[in-house]
Amino acid sequence: KIALLHGAHRVGKRTDATMEKWRGYGLGQFIHWGLYAIPGGAWNGKQYNGAAEWIRSWDGIPKSTYDSLNYSFNPTAFDAKAWAKTAKQMGARYVTFTTKHHDGFCLWPSKYTKYTVKNSPYKKDIVKAVVDAYDQEGIDVILYFSVMDWNHPDWRYDIKTKEDSIAFERFKKFTRNQLIELLTNYPTVKGLWFDGTWDKSWVKQAAFADELETEMRRLRPGLIIGSRFRADENGKRHFDSNGVLMGDYEQGWERKIPSKIEDVHGNDWDCVMTVPENQWGYNAAWNGHLKTGTELIEMTARCVSLGGNFVLNFGPKGDGAIRQEEIKLAEEIGDWMKVNQEAIYNCEYAGFDKQDWGYFTRKTGTDKVYMVVFNVPLSGALRIKTPSKTAIKKAYMLADAEESFVPEEISADEYFLHLKKSTNSKPFVIVLETLKATQDNGTKYEKAKI
Ligand SMILES: C[C@@H]1N[C@@H](c2nc3ccccc3[nH]2)[C@H](O)[C@@H]1O
């Protein structure tokens, strides 16, 4: 074990109620919104090839020209209540909202810089409107904050000279001031989702970032902070020099999902996902593969089956309206969640071997297991391998408990559920009421007969 001052301060999952609620969210919404939504991935008719929210880094645009976009930011169609209703309808239990992305533009009237919504034609506090609207819908709010700030004169990619370190000291104070400001202005937020923490300048700030994390947690007990905020004194990120996760959950799953339970190392985690391959901010020309509702429902089930949350990104347009494609996806996912949310909310890894037809989830704290079925085999037989000493008491369709199954035992702890010929076109859920063996003075473990 390597002696560390600024590595992980906790081994294993948090067990407090706030984190237990976070663990059970299942499905969340990410919103990337800011000045980058105005150009929407193109400039003077020329398409930008990267992610739309990175357009400022494109050589094709003078930085000062991009920065002056704040004088044309006037989202007349912005309606936080409408956003929150869409999220509610989709079945999202939390939202992660960009307060400041890499470009440094603040969607709240920060006292520590002029580059904020206050100095735009719009003037009003967008972060407050979002927090209040989502609070009203009963959807918890996590604030996204990019440490990297291309607009701030004191930001540095690395610290090479004396001048760099003097400037970066000012930047560190500015960053701390903004974070304390956010936690003070919006006391109901449940956590912070940090980004832009990979540059050498920040990676060298192990002590400062560790102290700042401690200060934020003291200011807001229960605050949820992921593994992307800080590095340890050896520059190790996410996992410290002893391989222990820093922060409350792993934030490494950006546009990717773990494939097996071993990949998550017993930690909490969330996966943040774009509808196109890689566009977070609004891009008018969505190119390439656009994930369908069914694909996104499958990603949600897969994340929950491996103990994580799935967070789907929305990129509202420059006028503040959510694009129709995203509204449609929210409706499709929401329709499915209305029927099947029991298999997603407050569920976790079931401990059953993965099968080809789909995913197992388990209602936390119970022996109730769900089969979320995406791929019906030609045989119509859904294979189940139960963990040892686990029997299946009952099996039935979640959508219609009358439609039940008698598992056919095909070998030790292995069963088939035989589906009726059906024309299922949407994923569906089967409920398994299971029974753990009870040690009954050594009598042979009795399997419940259906
Ligand atoms: C959640 C996502 N994180 C940002 C981001 N910037 C990156 C630079 C390099 C590699 C991955 C990145 N992800 C994206 O702009 C988006 O905000």
How would you sum up this structure, described in words?
This protein is α/β, with parallel strands linked by helices and 450 residues long. It is 24% helix and 20% strand. The protein has 9 helices and 18 strands. It has helices at residues 17-23, 63-67, 80-90, 126-136, 162-185, 200-203, 206-219, 293-305, 324-340; strands at 27-31, 42-43, 46-47, 94-100, 140-146, 191-195, 224-225, 250-254, 269-273, 309-314, 347-349, 358-363, 368-373, 381-385, 390-397, 408-411, 414-418, 428-436. The strands form 4 sheets. The protein has an 8-stranded parallel β-sheet, with helices on both faces. Helix 8 packs across helix 9 (324-340). The chain is globular and about 75 Å long. The chain starts with 16 loop residues before the first helix and ends in a 14-residue tail after the last strand. The model is unreliable at 440-446 (pLDDT under 50). Ligand EAT is lined by residues 32, 51, 53-54, 195, 254, 272, 280.
